[in-house]
Amino acid sequence: MSDVLERFLRYVKIDTESARDSETYPSTAKQLELLRLLADELRQIGLRDVAMDQYGYVTATLEATTSAPAPVIGFLAHVDTSPDFNGKDVRPQIVENYDGGDIVLNANEKIILSPQRFPDLLKYRGESLVTTDGTSLLGADDKAGIAEIMTSLAHLAAHPEIPHGKVRVAFTPDEEVGAGVDHFDVVAFGADFAFTVDGGEVGELEIETFNAAGAKVIIRGRNVHPGTAKGVMLNALIIAMEYNALLPVFDRPEHTEKSEGFYHLTQMSGGVELAQMDYIIRDHDEQSFEKRKAFLQSAAEFLNRKYGEPVVEVALKDQYYNMKKMIDPHPQILAVARAAYEAVGIEPRVIPVRGGTDGSRLSYMGLPTPNLFAGGHNMHGRYEFVPVSALEKASQVIVKICELAAG
């Protein structure tokens, strides 16, 4: 499976950045370039029923090589990269035989990938790494997953002696903006269960995600000339700061880990008359999740009472839920994944992911979909990197899952 690196390097150079608040689906037309390419490559390696629908979803089938009863397994990855950091003009760099020291990503800009700041680097002494050039993200989230799935399918198609049941594959747009499976047809996909290949470092196996919501907080002030403002002006920016100060300081991403939830202020804009703050709310525990949303509303009610009028309005929208609730009733899915990891020499680490995947929503749509590692580190930024060995190991795991499920 030596072509996984070549595929990955080719895919990351295609700009597929998605966009928030777009009125189209996909949110950016440029995602379709990679989706069309993937459809062509699926045909070239011999898959059947290759299709790209009106929403950009690319699906295909690898027919079974055994007549024995076997579940239909799906594998999914998303083509878009995060809109939160530059995804254009990605120029990947290969660091061979990494020596454990600083990696100069960009000498002109003095951008350094250092193990002092990112100690995970030290796990890969002597290995080859793919990094950015310091001016963009890399796109391992989730083009590593795409390359791994494509490489695995090509390997299985070229080796029909490997027993496996029917395999379905799907590549989707817009996961990074929370719309990845808005129009996905689970029934037509026809899998008994699936895996997203969209996780972090080697060994991670994710069956639990956050419950997630978004909140738009609108603050309506009253602007008058500052010379005559006493007793009249309401400064929406000041009230916005008051609102944020009511939220627990240590319930922020920079102070939480493992299963701890948080409030995260992602954007703030406006002026004296009108201001807006955007938050994401995350918690693995369902009851704590509901309490967090209620607290946002109670903070608004407090300020409205303080100012004697409705100055703060909170609009909440649930985004996805903890997929563990939907996956736990199907222990055979976790069992086959564990066995596949172990069969290729990887110790599985079942962890709660501090994020979400398309699998979160798919699991609630009737398709249990845990998440496999894809191998990337420091996603969504200039310090992103992926070990070449991780690309290879993930490809091996996918092949082994197909093989073991048929047994």
Structure description:
With 407 residues, this protein is α+β, with helices and mostly antiparallel strands. Strands 1-2-8-3-9-16-10-15 form an 8-stranded mixed beta sheet, sandwiched between helices. The chain folds into 2 domains: 291 residues, Zn peptidases (Aminopeptidase); 110 residues, Alpha-Beta Plaits, CATH 3.30.70.360. The longest helix has 22 residues. The mean pLDDT is 96. The radius of gyration is 23 Å and the shape is globular. Helix 1 runs antiparallel to helix 3, helix 3 packs across helix 10 and helix 8 crosses helix 10. It has 10 helices and 17 strands. 30% of the residues lie in helices and 23% in strands.
CATH class of the largest domain: Alpha Beta
Strand content range: 15-25%
User: Biggest sheet, in brief?
Assistant: 8 strands, mixed
Helix percentage:
25-40%
> Stretches where pLDDT falls below 50 for ≥5 residues?
none
Helix/strand order = HHEEEEEEEHEHEEEHEEHEHHEHEEH
Shape estimate: globular
Quaternary structure: single chain
The averaged pLDDT comes out at: 96
CATH superfamily of the largest domain: Zn peptidases
Task: Count up the helices.
Answer: 10
Can you tell me the number of structural domains? Answer: 2
- Determine the structural class based on helices, strands and strand pairing: alpha+beta
Radius of gyration: 23 Å
Look up the CATH topology of the largest domain: Aminopeptidase
